[in-house]
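Recall that a protein's primary structure is simply its ordered list of amino acids. Everything else, from secondary elements to tertiary packing, is in principle encoded there. The following example makes that idea concrete.
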Amino acid sequence: MSESPVAPRHVYLVDGSGFIFRAFHALPPLNRADGTPVNAVLGFSNMLYKLVGETDADHIAVIFDASRITFRNRLYDQYKAQRPEAPPELIPQFRIVREATEAFNIAQVEMVDYEADDLIATYARLARAAGAIVTIVSSDKDLMQLVGDGVAMYDPLKQRAIGPDEVREKFGVGPEQVVDVQALCGDSVDNVPGVPGIGVKTAAELINTYGDLETLLSRAPEIKQPKRRQSLIDFAEQARISRALVELKSDVEVPVPLADLGLRPSDPGKLLGFLQAQGFRQLASRVQTRHPGAVPTAAAPMAAPSEAAPSAASSSVAPVAIASDTPQPPAQVEKRYELVQTEADLDRWIARAEAEGVVAFDTETNSLDAVLAELVGISLAVAPGEACYIPVGHVGEAAAGELNLSGAERPPQIPLDTVLARLKPLLEAPAVLKVGHNAKYDIQIFRSYGIEVAPVDCTMLLANTLEAGAHGMGMDELALIYFDYETIKYKDVAGSGKSHKGFAAVPLEAARDYAAEDADITLRLHRLLKPRVGRERMATVYETIERPLMPVVAAMERAGIKVDRAELLRLSADFGERMVDYEKEIHVLAGGPFNIGSPKQLGEVLFEKLGLPGGKKGKNGAYGTDAGILEDLAQTHDLPRRVLDWRQLAKLKSTYADALVEQINPKTGRVHTSYSLAGAATGRLASTDPNLQNIPVRTEEGRKIRRAFVSEPGHVLMSADYSQIELRLAAHVAGIEALKQAFRNGDDIHAMTASQVFGVPVEGMDPMVRRRAKAINFGIIYGISGFGLAQQLSITPAEASEFIKAYFQRFPEIRNYMDETKAFCREHGYVKTIFGRKCHLPGIKDSNPARRAFSERAAINAPLQGAAADIIKRAMIRLPARLAAEGLKARMLLQVHDELVFEVPESETERTIPVLKEVMEGACAPVIELSVPLVVEVGQAHSWDEAH
């Protein structure tokens, strides 16, 4: 390299290795024509092109890691030991990224035994010594210790600068103290041990108090908190080792002098040849525009039409047209969002969507209740960065506070009826795939206007199919995870709390940016996630369970269920009167009045005034008074038992008797719950607003609430419930032959278990013995401990442990299943159901024993609960069509774990029951042949309680 003719003024140091990984995970899979993966190369090339075109730097270098083993591994042999190997699709891209750097004619540096971060630290020091300012192109937290005194960082994906204020926001200290904070809190990614029990917040607090690590360690005995104090004393040397690991070396004898990093012009022909060889047509086109006479020289262009296009999974509906090198993080693509206010513009967008064959869509409404909601606007996206917003229900902002918005002055909008008439053929077109996020809601909205949207993909369900349990499935969170992109938040445009004005009052330009971005991000997520479903062999779960369930659940939500208002009001009054009676009795037992609903006052009465044993104060200084504590105390005093009775009635009154009256829909006279399709890692549906899955059924008082759920005149409610489905699945999955045979014979499974485990005959068995066997049967599949079983059966933990030990001795297959399942989960981070659903459990390797044990218990149960969820979903999908084919008018209203509730004409009950049983009991076929029979119990009555 020739020496730079001038001293450096501004030096750009690009963290090449860090950016490769970010680009790889941010962009969807892309292959060039010969099949080589190039998505990280594309992201890297886009970044370099933008950087070189916009920077004022006169010196620039891309710094790479030479290898995973460095001098830090000699300091601590476990350093980065837990880091997984690079994904196979990324490995070939390391070499191509270096070729890209060469094609851009930018200096690149790497050095054996040192990390890229050490080279960056050294060049930063050299540049500052030469009087230059430094920009480190990275968002890596490990580099933040270098910020300050002429050194800043720049995140190219988020397009934001990182200075001392941003460092302090992240670490709670300035850059000069970052190393000390990292030494204390450690780094699980790099396996830097730190000090157990100390996180970033605590570490910052300590360093701000004591100044630096060594001062803190020398004064550790002064720390007031005993656990924190002991950890600092016991792990002082570990903290010092951690500091040595995280502190960057700035005195490396770099192989390339700073002077040789001068910015040099690229050879347009060579760069074009490289870009065209990868299939990066759009980027090559931009280079060609900037250098019109350039001719590719380095490599022959590849003209295959599918070059560098993401590999798409097969779809049973509409083909997904994905253009070359376009699916990129939002920060890297120009956003062209349009406000559609004329019919001509609307027709143009519809034509574009029809031509593309796939369109992302989203609705903006005036309510989260899909049954009551009215349209405010609709957004469409047809390509990354190309989206529009069609307002249909906006009012003037000045009228936002008025009760009657219909008369407010409206900004220019196409009439709603016109918009819907134009959109209906597109939204119902079988050749155009519609993509939504939480599309079930949007399906319902359009259904209320007479539009049946189909075919539909849902990016929330795609993400949940691939990574359930690993993270949340909200669009904002997914945008941050996959694209490292912060979306516009609803509250930022519509306000929140007292300042909430509703979306109808949001100015059109702000509404456009928010709503169009939603559709845009949805489209990008689809391009990223849909191909993975096929590659990762999750198509069965998504295409045969999750996707077809959407319209079924939407119809169920819209149907709702009738609630007897008068009965709820009667129950509310009854609960209230009895609460007063309990309150009087409690006050007598306490020797005076107090607020029963106050845990603090209750604790003082129990443990100070009455002197009951076992009182323990929490961090807030109040005694613990949860249900478990009161149950124990109830063995020795009447007051805790009466408080439990009072609490039960208070819960039933407020949560159900009173709340359900308010949730009766004024249009339909029914209650319409909402089901989350991605609310649980196991695939179970979750009911909200109101939650109808948590109504207590094991107590007489709780069952009274279900009596208020009734059928319409001339109909009955029919409950179809899988019997012991998780236990049956455990027998099948674990291969427990004795249990399988008992299920085949139709035996009393709990009595049989008691006979096998405790050696007593079934005939004349003590009911308590059967109860113990039942508790073990169900407890085992939830990973119950001896302590947990002891609490359930009111026996000693030692006795409970002996019961569990005897169970495992009689059924060793269940122990093998548990051990193998936990081992699989530790290796892979997830477990699978018999249908292939993945349930991720990131806590399985947690250093905290309690969190790790919780994940291990979840790992045991998740394949069983998840399979049960898959089975009932498969039944739900098949039932509407089968009922219709039989000429039956039964409507599915509710799903509560293993139970389905239908409203059935009284004249059709006899014909409906065998159809329900046949479909539900055969739901596994043809994918899985269970070694035990599924049994569905069906009941019918005019109320839900009597039907179940």
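The chain has four domains: 10-261, 330-556, 561-671, 730-862. The chain has 36 helices and 23 strands.
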